Amino acid sequence: xxxxxxLFLRCAGFCAIALSSAPARAQDDAVVHEAPMSGxxxxxxxxxxxxxxxxxxxxxxxxxVDDVSHLPAxxxxxxxxxxxxxxxxxxxxxxEVNLAMVNSSFAHDFFKPGAVIGALxxxxxxxxxxxxxxxxxxxxxxxxxxxxxxxxxxxxxxxVQGLKFATQRERxxxxxxxxxxxxxxxxxxxxxxxxxxxxxxFAVPAYTLASYVAISRLPxxxxxxxxxxxxxxVGIIAGRTVTRHGRPFPVTVVVADRGVSLVxxxxxx
Length: 269
Fold this sequence. Notes:
Number of domains: 1
Oligomer: single chain
Largest sheet: 2 strands, antiparallel
Shape: globular
CATH architecture: Up-down Bundle
């Protein structure tokens, strides 16, 4: 019992010394930071407020070039690897899934709007509308969101069209250039960029709609299941790349001892 009390007193004494020395250290730090610019307020010493990002046409072109240069990133490679493995895993059931979806009248009717919702003109028009509202109302955050949505779509389309011409996979209906799905890629790029700006409260509906659009390509007989799976990955990569600054992405690919894993990180805003 005596040993316990002695240990308690020693810990209490250590804590008291640590707490009492904290204000002194804080004051010392304040002197160090204020000494070079003693005539300024502390808020000014910390530096000027960050300027809003530029969102004009020149900024768009510059950002796109910068985005393309950042595509060869480690995390993008991991995402591409995960998407590639997933597409290969479902590839053996492509014809079976396609046959079931095409022959389902319910699936055909229920998913029919997906062709219009996920079309590039629809998504691009929505992104331009967000950008225009931000510009007209002088709201830099809104215009920045719209600009990132535009960039995500442009980058997504660039990746999709390059892969389509490289693979030359035939669609289920016999037309060319199936892999990957552009509808799936563009809608997931849109949803990913939106999540980075607005968080999961708004992104969950966006990802739900993106999944709906991606699945709609199957009963429409325009894509195989593996086209859709890899298309979603391309979209995520595009959305991540144009919004690589700012909040950490909540879903991250991590290299584990026996492969890779998807980690979901939940944090406060």
